[in-house]
Design the sequence.
């Protein structure tokens, strides 16, 4: 395994771990969402690392290229295609989450999850 | 006629986009949504079984390794997909029909979400590509969150955000699991991955393979609402409009079986896989019914009962024999219908009383006899009372666990069924049979006729599948034989 690939894998693992920590333990919803983005990006980076090929070329067959040379030297294109799709979905999820946070911030005036996402039955009792 | 296979996804997807774009034309939107919803159960019935290769890329032989591989996304359409997609289509039609008649001015985004969710679960069930499944799993989560947030029920935004935050942890975990499988096999096609595992090209005991199982399994628990996600799953049902909740639970059931069948094909050689599925299923059965017993909000009560019923499905699949998996899948089909019937029925009560607390209700049998009787039959079907459909699938599950040499699981399944019966009868008595509280006003509001119609249609299917279970079990059994 190339050193670059190893470094990418370690980075992705670090992103996932940091993301999980902040998503689980940090109370501020924006920081929680940043943590969630870290997890998503860690997963994406991991998949990119799978397609990495030391000294490889971009997997686009250009006119005049020798196909057997291309097959031997091109990076594996599937992970890149998957990551592209995954980034788009991640962005949509992030947008929806932030939109919900905006609505809830207007209602509660705080970004603390222990206030805005407390057990709804308790919230109902509190309202009463 | 395999061209119809992708249409099962394309039609609701395009309809969702068009409705969202042209929702300002209220009458045209209503007519269009009705017609498209009517087409949804028809397409799978009209379609022939077979495979659809996107872009026309059929499987090819790799000359170097002599292994067949799938270069493009493949949709596989068999009896199982046909029956589930047709039922999902019927349910979408009924829910859209109820929604269209309930409101004068329809919401384009809400209809968009209903159709989007249907398209997403249909794709999850059809696809033979694990990443494609993941993409629609994410789209489904967005649709589910939207359906909950769009309801006018208090605290629906909070519940939607909670579900989304948990989902945003579950989804990347599943993606990582898929990444590990890709790293091991170089493919995201389930048939190719399963062939690589079963032909010994992948070491099934390697830590990376086991880690991929753990990560995808975590995503499956989230999608299915099995413990530890049972509370949030029942929560989103209670915060959605009742007809929306009827559709949401069907999305959960179909996504649950879609993912577990993919996992089964890849990981069935690992004994730990079946142990995990059975363990979490039993946990769901016990927790679901126990928590349902303590609820006073009847929407939440059905939500927990639905989670308990999911445990029965997982149990059948986890036992791993042809008969057990058939029983589990039959139970899944029954749960879609029965729980939808209960949600719509109790939704009719909410509509008539504006009350969800069982302690404040009573004497409804005299005011809404049709709804009361249909709900009673649905509740009995869920508890597994003969000759209704729930009885047939639960009997099969009990027989399957006995055949597999686990009499204790059979006893547990029977006890959970009895507990379900107790929960339902207790709620039914409180709402329909005990004297009406003085402060409850019932005279003014009628139950919408579309709701009665929807309940009637679903009730006929419950009775039909109870009396003639072979209509579906024979076909499901053939499908299971194929994957085993």
Sequence:
């Amino acid at each position: 395994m190339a050193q670059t690939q190893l470094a990418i894998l370690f980075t992705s693992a670090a992103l996932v771990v940091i993301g999980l920590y902040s998503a689980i333990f940090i109370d501020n919803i924006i920081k929680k969402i940043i943590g969630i983005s870290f997890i998503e990006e860690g997963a994406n980076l991991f998949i990119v690392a799978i397609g990495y090929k030391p000294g490889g070329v971009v997997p686009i067959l250009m006119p005049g290229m020798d196909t057997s040379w291309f097959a031997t030297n091109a990076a594996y294109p599937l992970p890149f295609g998957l990551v592209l799709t995954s980034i788009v979905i991640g962005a949509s999820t992030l947008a929806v989450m932030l939109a919900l946070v905006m609505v809830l911030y207007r209602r509660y005036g705080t970004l603390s999850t222990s206030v805005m996402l407390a057990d709804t039955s308790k919230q109902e009792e509190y309202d009463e | 006629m395999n061209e119809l296979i992708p249409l099962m996804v394309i039609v609701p997807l395009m309809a969702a986009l068009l409705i969202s774009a042209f929702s300002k034309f209220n009458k045209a939107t209503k007519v269009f949504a009705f017609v498209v919803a009517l087409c949804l159960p028809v397409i799978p019935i009209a379609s022939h079984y077979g495979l659809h290769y996107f872009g026309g890329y059929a499987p090819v032989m790799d000359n170097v390794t002599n292994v067949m591989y799938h270069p493009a996304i493949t949709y596989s359409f068999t009896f199982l997909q046909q029956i589930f997609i047709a039922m999902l289509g019927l349910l979408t039609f009924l829910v859209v029909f109820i929604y269209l008649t309930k409101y004068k001015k329809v919401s384009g985004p809400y209809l968009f979400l209903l159709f989007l969710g249907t398209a997403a679960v249909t794709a999850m069930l059809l696809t033979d590509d694990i990443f494609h499944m993941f993409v629609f799993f994410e789209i489904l989560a967005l649709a589910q969150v939207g359906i909950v947030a769009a309801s006018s029920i208090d605290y629906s935004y909070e519940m939607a955000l909670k579900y989304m935050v948990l989902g945003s942890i579950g989804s990347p975990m599943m993606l990582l699991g898929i990444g590990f499988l890709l790293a091991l096999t170089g493919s995201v096609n389930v048939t190719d991955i399963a062939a690589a595992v079963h032909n010994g090209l992948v070491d099934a005991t390697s830590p990376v393979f086991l880690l991929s199982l753990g990560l995808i399994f975590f995503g499956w628990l989230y999608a299915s609402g099995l413990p530890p996600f049972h509370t949030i799953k029942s929560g989103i049902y209670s915060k959605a409009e009742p007809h929306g909740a009827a559709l949401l639970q069907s999305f959960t059931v179909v996504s649950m079986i879609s993912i577990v069948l993919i996992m089964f094909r890849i990981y069935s050689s690992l004994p730990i896989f079946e142990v995990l599925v059975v363990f979490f299923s039993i946990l769901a059965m016990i927790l679901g019914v126990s928590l349902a017993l303590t609820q006073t909000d009847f929407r939440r009560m059905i939500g927990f009962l639905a989670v308990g019923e999911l445990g029965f499905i997982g149990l059948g699949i986890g036992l791993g024999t042809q008969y057990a998996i058939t029983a589990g899948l039959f139970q899944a089909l029954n749960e879609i219908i029965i729980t939808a019937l209960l949600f719509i029925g109790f939704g009719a009560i909410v509509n008539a009383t504006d009350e969800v607390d069982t302690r404040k209700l009573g004497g409804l049998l005299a005011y809404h006899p049709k709804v009361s009787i249909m709900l009673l039959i649905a509740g009995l079907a869920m508890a597994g009372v003969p000759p209704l459909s729930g009885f047939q699938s639960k009997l099969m599950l009990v027989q399957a666990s006995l055949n597999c040499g686990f009499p204790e699981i059979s006893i547990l399944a029977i006890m959970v069924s009895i507990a379900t019966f107790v929960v339902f009868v207790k709620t039914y008595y409180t709402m329909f049979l005990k004297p009406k509280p003085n402060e409850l006003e019932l005279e003014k509001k009628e139950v919408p006729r579309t709701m009665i119609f929807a309940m009637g249609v679903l009730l006929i299917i419950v009775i039909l599948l109870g009396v003639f279970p072979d209509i579906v079990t024979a076909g499901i059994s053939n499908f299971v034989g194929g994957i085993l």
Observations:
- Chain B has two domains: 1-268, 270-484.
- The two ends of chain B are 27 Å apart (CA to CA).
- The interface with chain A takes residues 131, 135, 138-139, 141-142, 145-146, 149, 154-155, 157-162, 164-165, 167-169, 171-173, 175-176, 179, 182-183, 186-188, 235, 239 of chain B (CB under 8 Å).
